[in-house]
Amino acid sequence: RALSKVDPDAFVIRAVDGVEALEIIDADNIPRPYFIMLDVNMPRMNGHEFLQKLRMNKRDSGSMVFMFTTSDSARDIAKAYSERVNGYIVKPHGKAGMHSILDTIRGYWNICEPPMNAA
Protein backbone atom coordinates (compact mmCIF):
# COMPACT_ATOMS: atom_id res chain seq x y z
CA ARG A 1 0.00 0.00 0.00
CA ALA A 2 2.77 2.44 0.88
CA LEU A 3 4.57 1.67 -2.39
CA SER A 4 1.46 2.68 -4.34
CA LYS A 5 1.65 6.10 -2.68
CA VAL A 6 5.34 6.50 -3.57
CA ASP A 7 4.81 5.28 -7.15
CA PRO A 8 1.16 5.25 -8.27
CA ASP A 9 2.17 3.58 -11.57
CA ALA A 10 3.85 0.63 -9.86
CA PHE A 11 2.34 -2.76 -10.65
CA VAL A 12 2.00 -4.26 -7.17
CA ILE A 13 0.59 -7.62 -6.20
CA ARG A 14 0.16 -8.22 -2.49
CA ALA A 15 0.15 -11.66 -0.89
CA VAL A 16 -0.88 -12.21 2.72
CA ASP A 17 1.81 -14.83 3.34
CA GLY A 18 4.55 -16.87 1.71
CA VAL A 19 2.21 -19.67 0.65
CA GLU A 20 -0.01 -17.27 -1.29
CA ALA A 21 3.05 -15.52 -2.78
CA LEU A 22 4.40 -18.81 -4.13
CA GLU A 23 0.97 -19.67 -5.54
CA ILE A 24 0.89 -16.33 -7.37
CA ILE A 25 4.40 -16.84 -8.72
CA ASP A 26 3.73 -20.46 -9.72
CA ALA A 27 0.56 -19.46 -11.58
CA ASP A 28 2.88 -17.63 -14.01
CA ASN A 29 0.26 -14.97 -14.81
CA ILE A 30 2.43 -11.95 -14.12
CA PRO A 31 5.46 -10.75 -16.07
CA ARG A 32 8.99 -11.31 -14.85
CA PRO A 33 11.33 -10.12 -13.48
CA TYR A 34 10.04 -10.16 -9.98
CA PHE A 35 10.94 -7.58 -7.38
CA ILE A 36 9.82 -9.03 -4.07
CA MET A 37 9.48 -7.25 -0.76
CA LEU A 38 9.24 -9.84 1.94
CA ASP A 39 8.64 -9.89 5.69
CA VAL A 40 10.41 -12.37 7.95
CA ASN A 41 7.33 -12.71 10.15
CA MET A 42 4.45 -14.13 8.12
CA PRO A 43 1.78 -16.71 8.91
CA ARG A 44 1.88 -20.24 7.43
CA MET A 45 5.32 -19.77 5.81
CA ASN A 46 7.86 -17.30 7.14
CA GLY A 47 10.13 -15.21 4.94
CA HIS A 48 13.10 -17.55 5.24
CA GLU A 49 11.01 -20.56 4.21
CA PHE A 50 9.64 -18.59 1.27
CA LEU A 51 13.16 -17.63 0.14
CA GLN A 52 14.36 -21.23 0.30
CA LYS A 53 11.50 -22.36 -1.94
CA LEU A 54 11.89 -19.42 -4.32
CA ARG A 55 15.63 -19.99 -4.72
CA MET A 56 15.07 -23.71 -5.45
CA ASN A 57 12.98 -22.82 -8.50
CA LYS A 58 15.54 -22.10 -11.23
CA ARG A 59 13.07 -19.99 -13.20
CA ASP A 60 12.55 -17.54 -10.33
CA SER A 61 15.82 -17.92 -8.43
CA GLY A 62 17.17 -14.63 -9.78
CA SER A 63 14.26 -12.57 -8.50
CA MET A 64 15.32 -9.44 -6.65
CA VAL A 65 14.26 -9.81 -3.02
CA PHE A 66 14.35 -7.31 -0.19
CA MET A 67 13.49 -8.28 3.37
CA PHE A 68 11.39 -5.44 4.75
CA THR A 69 10.59 -6.37 8.31
CA THR A 70 10.39 -5.36 11.96
CA SER A 71 12.97 -7.99 12.92
CA ASP A 72 16.40 -6.58 13.71
CA SER A 73 17.67 -9.96 14.87
CA ALA A 74 21.29 -10.59 13.84
CA ARG A 75 20.30 -14.20 13.14
CA ASP A 76 17.49 -13.17 10.76
CA ILE A 77 19.79 -10.70 8.99
CA ALA A 78 22.59 -13.25 8.53
CA LYS A 79 20.15 -15.93 7.37
CA ALA A 80 18.53 -13.58 4.85
CA TYR A 81 21.87 -12.66 3.29
CA SER A 82 22.86 -16.33 3.15
CA GLU A 83 19.65 -16.79 1.13
CA ARG A 84 20.84 -14.09 -1.31
CA VAL A 85 18.53 -11.20 -0.49
CA ASN A 86 19.41 -7.95 -2.24
CA GLY A 87 18.87 -6.00 0.96
CA TYR A 88 17.61 -6.32 4.52
CA ILE A 89 15.68 -3.32 5.78
CA VAL A 90 14.22 -2.88 9.25
CA LYS A 91 10.91 -1.06 8.95
CA PRO A 92 11.13 2.48 10.25
CA HIS A 93 8.63 4.07 12.58
CA GLY A 94 6.38 6.55 10.84
CA LYS A 95 5.15 7.12 7.32
CA ALA A 96 7.88 9.59 6.32
CA GLY A 97 10.63 7.06 6.99
CA MET A 98 8.70 4.34 5.20
CA HIS A 99 8.11 6.50 2.12
CA SER A 100 11.77 7.54 2.01
CA ILE A 101 12.94 3.92 2.06
CA LEU A 102 10.39 2.84 -0.54
CA ASP A 103 11.38 5.73 -2.80
CA THR A 104 15.03 4.67 -2.53
CA ILE A 105 14.16 1.04 -3.34
CA ARG A 106 12.05 2.15 -6.31
CA GLY A 107 14.99 4.18 -7.58
CA TYR A 108 17.27 1.16 -7.19
CA TRP A 109 14.85 -0.99 -9.17
CA ASN A 110 14.66 1.61 -11.93
CA ILE A 111 18.43 1.79 -12.45
CA CYS A 112 19.29 -1.91 -12.12
CA GLU A 113 19.39 -4.45 -14.89
CA PRO A 114 17.50 -7.43 -13.44
CA PRO A 115 19.34 -10.77 -13.60
CA MET A 116 16.71 -12.35 -15.85
CA ASN A 117 17.33 -9.70 -18.51
CA ALA A 118 21.08 -10.18 -18.56
CA ALA A 119 22.56 -11.60 -21.73
Based on helices, strands and strand pairing, what is the structural class?
A: alpha/beta
Beta-strand fraction estimate: 5-15%
Spatial strand arrangement across the major sheet:
1-2-3
Distance between the termini: 33 Å
The CATH fourth-level homologous superfamily:
Response regulator
Shape: globular
Modified residues (4-aspartylphosphate): 39
Protein name: Response regulator receiver domain-containing protein
Keywords: Phosphoprotein
InterPro entries: CheY-like_superfamily (IPR011006), Sig_transdc_resp-reg_receiver (IPR001789), TCS_response_regulator (IPR052893)
Task: State the gist of this model.
It contains 5 helices and 3 strands; from the N terminus they run H-H-E-H-E-H-E-H. By secondary structure, the chain is α/β, with parallel strands linked by helices. The protein has one domain: Rossmann fold, CATH 3.40.50.2300.
Can you walk me through this structure?
By secondary structure, this protein is α/β, with parallel strands linked by helices. It has one domain: 3-Layer(aba) Sandwich (Rossmann fold). Helices cover 43% and strands 12% of the residues. It is built from 5 helices and 3 strands. Strands 1-2-3 form a 3-stranded parallel sheet, covered by helices on one side. Strand 2, helix 4 and strand 3 form a beta-alpha-beta unit. The longest helix has 17 residues. The radius of gyration is 14 Å and the shape is globular. The mean pLDDT is 82. InterPro entries: CheY-like_superfamily, Sig_transdc_resp-reg_receiver, TCS_response_regulator. This is Response regulator receiver domain-containing protein. It comes from Tritonibacter scottomollicae (Epibacterium scottomollicae).
